[in-house]
């Protein structure tokens, strides 16, 4: 029988973990008025706090006894004695308790702060659009910069936020500025300075180490022509500006992707960045007057790019801007014909450390792929020589120097295999170039042990001021945790211990000197009215593996229709952080089940690699079991279950409605993989080879034989297409380089020919369908499709 580890159907004390535990331990704290509080063994929260008369501001949260509620401030926090004390001493609590407020506080309309379940039957296009507009305005943090004044008494914090403007059909990025007195002793209390300031989303900013200078790389479009400029600013004015096209020494600068870099030198007289090699001029055989440096007959020659989301990245080079005279020099002759990226200055600015992606017969896609063969190189600016650091048969990325320049850390993964996998944290003693392993991969962790590092990149400022500690955010099951790693001992400490938070992202000052916990959010910015649980499952066919699912629903609602949503990848994961679509689904009256099936990242390498060769069976089984177990909960209506997924999630959704045709009432898929045997036009052909479990390792000249094609077809959803009776909506990208649009249209035409209710929307977009206007249209159509077939 299927069993669920940690999942209990009777009421239990902790809704986060669904566990019972011994209640013999007790704590008595007279300062806060807490008596007979029992400490939770996992999250450290105090369960069922009993409040004495003089601590009447505190109460427990009925839905989650691991949280405490401040009646004055109207906020919740982990019910630990230390956290309760900290809150009771905060300026905010004192002001709320005495009825005083800041002179700068004013009443304002709160948009989208509370989720109210609309109810699926009452939905129409108008109120769905209204809800999307409202919640799209809720900003999400994307970056932060912290620094303090020369006297060390004031801390400046700049946070970068992003939201979507549905009227303009584009994302809006802006900054907020905060300051706090800083004395290394008392708690921080941040105050916002001025208004939020919009920043150009098509720009990059680099602040010099001293904070004296700011460089801005921006794109400006006039009359359909786009140019790039670099501006140099000090604290008061713009000092200079360079038109990079007029300089004429390289092509377009990389602002995103695996190669991008934009960094001041330590001496603050140079800027380092990555751009495209100056393109050779192409001309026709029939041109009467050939340009001086043009090659005849090359106008239609294919220039291979690095795939999805990197269509303009073909041949990168390293560029250095001398700020004194605004002259650009280009380094473009690289060893092994490698493609340079992620460049950083070596100590004293006498060299450049960069990642060199190795070149083969043709280019493979780099987006979401951390398994591409790459080496770590050092370029000596004086000698004009290259040398490698560390192992040369790995996938290497994210080089970061310690503040004193004595140590370099970087991430390292295996070449080939799953596109996203656990990485090793490596360090290099810069003087001796000795390489040491700090954190290794973990093969089979227990359900509560550290599962290994799952990091896409290291933060720009990941080092603490002690030149010993590195702070990173890493996937840990269905959460992102904040970790501190001692680079001398390899010891690792989990800094994020609040079970009420599902995703942590850390930021340090440039020298790593500020290390305090505090909140700068107002209560009004938080979305209320939802509850979420992480459910953990133990498959009956494998006693050593687990997987999880995140259930999100409206509080105090029952008999909700359920959207089952497996992630793509397949080696990806859903984290229990803010995501606009799940929240909107809940607001529309659904419950949402985000399934992290076996093969997801963050559960150990054995778990991740267990899926290879078993796609279409193991992952489908996990998703279906999670759906069936969750359907038994009292808040779910087991007769109203639908499924949604994109990419590999679409692969699983199409499998589910083919293998379980009576279980799901409707399905929506974004750019699904439908037929592995026909998946030729893709920027990641190695993905099919590895996940399909084909014989031998992928080679650049690999071609599947008849047995391979049969094997791939047997693992594909198209095998079950004749069983499908579920109404199906397909959302496809015309510019998708990862999963060809023909995959989705193949299923669409088959269902249409059989009379199954189906519809197909095609967008002028890539694999993620991430353009704001397309994302909005996809959501509205998805909800309307589900509503229609749940009626």
UniProtKB/TrEMBL annotation:
It is an enzyme of class 3 (hydrolase). It catalyses: Cleavage of an N-acetyl or N-formyl amino acid from the N-terminus of a polypeptide. The keyword Cytoplasm applies. It comes from the Eukaryota. Residues 164-513 form the Acylamino-acid-releasing enzyme N-terminal domain. Belongs to the peptidase S9C family. Homotetramer. One of its GO terms (biological process) is proteolysis. It holds the Pfam family APEH_N. Residues 584-790 form the Peptidase S9 prolyl oligopeptidase catalytic domain. InterPro entries: 6-blade_b-propeller_TolB-like, AARE_N, AB_hydrolase_fold, Peptidase_S9_cat. Keywords: Cytoplasm, Hydrolase. One of its GO terms (cellular component) is cytoplasm. It comes from Tropilaelaps mercedesae. This is Acylamino-acid-releasing enzyme. Its EC number is 3.4.19.1. GO terms for molecular function: omega peptidase activity; serine-type endopeptidase activity. It is found in: Cytoplasm.
